[in-house]
Structures are given as C-alpha cells and as structure tokens.
Amino acid sequence: MATRLSSREHYLDLLDKYDTWLFDCDGVLWQGDKLIDGAVEVLQLLRHHKKAVLFVTNNATKSRVNYKKKFDSLGVEAHVDEIYGSAYAAAVYISSVMKMPKDKKVYVIGMAGLEEELREEGISYIGGTDPEDNTLGSFSLANWTPDPKVGAVLCGLDTSINYTKLSKAFNYILRNEDCAFLVTNEDSTYPTAEGLLPGAGSISAPLRYALGRDPIAIGKPKGTMLDCIRAKHAFDPERTIMVGDRLNTDIEFGKAGGLATLLVLTGITKESELSGPNASPTVPDYVTNSIGDLRVLSS
C-alpha cells in the first residue's frame, strides 16, 4: 500500500530522507500553460534545503534550451543541465549507445525540439519539419526516392503527423533490416490545460501495427533516461525520489531505477486507480494530492 501523505510530519520525513528530487513536468508542475498552485514555492523550498532538483520529461517537442523558456515564462527556476527530455535522451542514445556512423541519417517523425537535440549531438536527419514531408497531399512510392543513408527512424510526438511521414518511415524500416526503429517515448496521451490529447505512443502506433514489431523506446519508464541522468549527475538511488502523475511511466520509471516514488493526482492518474477492483498493479511509495501540499514545510 502507498503511504498517503497528510501531515507536516509526513512531508518532513520526505525532506529528511531524499537528497535528489526528480520531477515530471506536465501534470506535476503545470497543466498546459497553467502552473500547479504552490509548485514554485515547493521547488524554492527544496533548493533552500540544498536538495538537487532535476526535471525529467517525456515531452520530445522541445529541446532542453527551448523547454527552459517554458520554465522561465512560468516563473519556475530551472537550468538547462537540470532538464532531461526524451528528445535529448534519444539523441544521446543514437550517438553514444548505437554509435551510428556520422555518414548515416535519421528519418524523423517529430517536431523542431527533436531536430535541435539531434543537431547538438552532430546527428544528420531528414523528415521532421521539412515542408516537403508536411503535406496533406497523397503519397506514392512511384514518386519517392529513398535516401540510402537513413540508418534509423525516430518517432516522437508530431502534431503534423500525416500519411506521407508514416509511409516513408514504414518503408525505411521495411526495406532495410539494419534500420533502427526508435521512439522517444510510448505515452498514449499527454495532458493539456484543456484536457487529454494523443501522445507520442499513439503517433508511432500505426508503424508498430504495419510493421508487426515493437520499437526501442527511450523515455520513461525505460532505463535509458536514468542512464542519461546518471552520466551527468551523481546521485544515491536510495536517497532519490521520483515525483510524477502517471503510474505506467513516472512511477514505473522510478521503481525500475531503485528510486522512491511520489504520485501526485493533478495529472493523468486518478484516485480510482489506486484501490479497488480496477486498481493498477503499479503502486507508488507515497501519494499526495498536489505538489503544492509540500508548502506545509514552510510554515
């Protein structure tokens, strides 16, 4: 059973036990472009107590540099080296784990932030925001010449997804058994201030179905993201806590990495998923209604 946090003593115990705090962003610190009440104060409180604060998001639409602009616009203190997105992790995976040759390219289904992180890692790419691929026109193999240098297909959230992009990605993988099939994350949905929308996992689903194979996923709950963090920040897993709003990504990510986990109920996961006949098998260590609840520590 998860420990339901409800008293100042509960939150003081967390403050004492954990030195490194990993935060998901959407649904934890904000909803769309609206801050969660108390989020800024709680982050300031943790920094005041000399806690390491890191931000771990599956959002691959923005680079770390541009994601920082969102923090700035909302008045949330964050530094680029504290931000870990699945776009950055995917680029690091391609360059450092796959060690894809420099003469190879990545075909991208995704947005500008994903392209920016690939460029920062010195990775060549095609597709993505290229106007040629952002069309609602019909697609025909007869009018397309594949680029023989494509060695991987990388799929993230793409709000301009279309049949042309899916068709090209499908054929790159189908025609070349050495072409890697990668996804930034497998989130089925993502939260906005107005409600849920299809996530990156929904964008890659047609490819999985058409190809009859699963991709390599980079973001939470996969360990690749934690490896990326560990390469840049030394931390003790026993004194680290993952704060998230989603059981099947944030909480599973923390558990798989040997971290403590704190679930907030301001995003995807609802109270009904924690108990009863339809309860999720994934159980967080702690539950609180909102990150703002920790403001009690300042009183």
Automatic annotation (TrEMBL):
Substrate binds at K220. One of its GO terms (cellular component) is cytoplasm. Its EC number is 3.1.3.41. It catalyses: 4-nitrophenyl phosphate + H2O = 4-nitrophenol + phosphate + H(+). Keywords: Hydrolase, Magnesium, Metal-binding. Divalent metal ions. Mg(2+) is the most effective. InterPro entries: HAD-like_sf, HAD-SF_hydro_IIA, HAD_sf, PGP_euk. It holds the Pfam family Hydrolase_like. The active site is at D24, D26. Mg(2+) binds at D24, D26, D245. One of its GO terms (molecular function) is phosphoglycolate phosphatase activity. It comes from the Eukaryota. The keyword Lipoprotein does not apply. It is an enzyme of class 3 (hydrolase). SUPFAM superfamilies: HAD-like (SSF56784). Its cofactor is Mg(2+). This is 4-nitrophenylphosphatase. It comes from Trametes cubensis.
